[in-house]
């Protein structure tokens, strides 16, 4: 099944291809956890197919077969440029991941790179230490200038293009401005703002929009079939900002369950059934990025509740005595929503425990809103 929320973007490309209006370069922007790698591969497959039938790939030609290979598919006319740097941060015994080549034909390595944030949810390694190196851009551009192997065009993809630094962006510019006629260059970025204007002005721009609540829920329902639990899905999607793949990763890790435990505990402390210390201990034993996500979203939902947004749209509030927690004064919630930022992990990739006192004062602030 091709993701419903990517269809508009794919159709946009398909249409430009059928009208022979395809730009030589496309920039795709959006949250990588929306499955943008699938969109890129679908676009590349269609472009490289030698025998398109009514504007769809034939699934039968040499090119289509190569791309649909079961094991480690590669295509000689499809190349990926990946950022490097993060692998050196990974544990040294993990030799396999440090062998990833930044300029590669490996579709698997491209997908893993696009799923970087999803694969690092637990440890909260950020993409900040990674960069697209200028020497890799140069070999990537050299490849673009060569002829194609199957004689049906070439596709060159830059994954996480927001990690281009100034000199690597400059090294790309000339090829990007004047690629060979039968070549499609695709840049994938988290947002257009993170690319230099010189690059932006040269390409067709495609924004992958965020997924609507019901569509995201339907995807999770389809994914989990009989195991699907609507309450859990709603919490996971809220934590994942409605990204279905991220929600699945969080759901599989049980983060939604941990989240439900913590908000029930806040509810119990609020009504005097449990002690403040129990809550602080539970928060301390939660991984810091997860704790930050849960508390931030919880405060936001409380504010939405106070703004009279229907409880049907507030999955966290469904889990608690909303009338009681809803009595926390708005001014306290506004202060808490500032204070929760002090609990945000520092983006070094090195886990840093928020000092106990910051957490304690956050809890005290929240409880001070009791009437
Ligand atoms: Zn084909």
UniProtKB/TrEMBL annotation:
**Top EC group:** transferase
Q: Does the keyword ATP-binding apply?
A: no
Q: Which Gene3D superfamilies match?
A: P-loop containing nucleotide triphosphate hydrolases
Q: Which InterPro entries match?
A: DNA_Rep/Repair_Clamp_Loader, P-loop_NTPase
Give its E.C. classification number. Answer: 2.7.7.7
Entry keyword set:
DNA-directed DNA polymerase, Nucleotidyltransferase, Transferase
SUPFAM superfamilies given for it?
A: P-loop containing nucleoside triphosphate hydrolases
Q: Which reaction does it catalyse?
A: DNA(n) + a 2'-deoxyribonucleoside 5'-triphosphate = DNA(n+1) + diphosphate
Identification of the protein by name: DNA-directed DNA polymerase
Please name the source species.
Succinivibrio faecicola
